[in-house]
Amino acid sequence: MKMYLISDNIDTLTGMRLAGVDGVVVHERNELRGAIENAMNDKTVGIILLTEKFGREFPDLLDEIKLERTMPLLIEIPDRHGTGRKKDFITSYVNEAIGLKL
């Protein structure tokens, strides 16, 4: 199985191509949906990497796809601008999940 990147910028795509990951750059919702569908129809793709910007801009689209399909796995990654999460997001996540303050 291979990985496939759907990015909102050429810099992230270039970096991933250096690591051997193919992909595409898209900007609009309909382009994103088409790129995801194309990647899902490719039986050799096991993981679709998406830059975090898509998760912030189109969460309903990504949630819909995640609920409908189990393969390939959709994973959001930080882009060249870094992560959009707070510094202590892991601690906050654990606190919410188990109800204990660390």
TrEMBL record:
MF-aspect GO terms: proton-transporting ATPase activity, rotational mechanism
Gene3D superfamilies: ATPase, V1 complex, subunit F
InterPro entries xref list: ATPase_V1-cplx_f_g_su, ATPase_V1_fsu_sf
Name under which the protein is recorded: ATP synthase subunit F
Family per record: Belongs to the V-ATPase F subunit family.
Keyword Transport: yes
Pfam families for the chain: ATP-synt_F
Transmembrane regions: none
Organism (species): Clostridium scindens (strain JCM 10418 / VPI 12708)
Keyword vocabulary terms for this entry: Ion transport, Transport
Record keyword Nucleotide-binding present: no
Domain of life: Bacteria
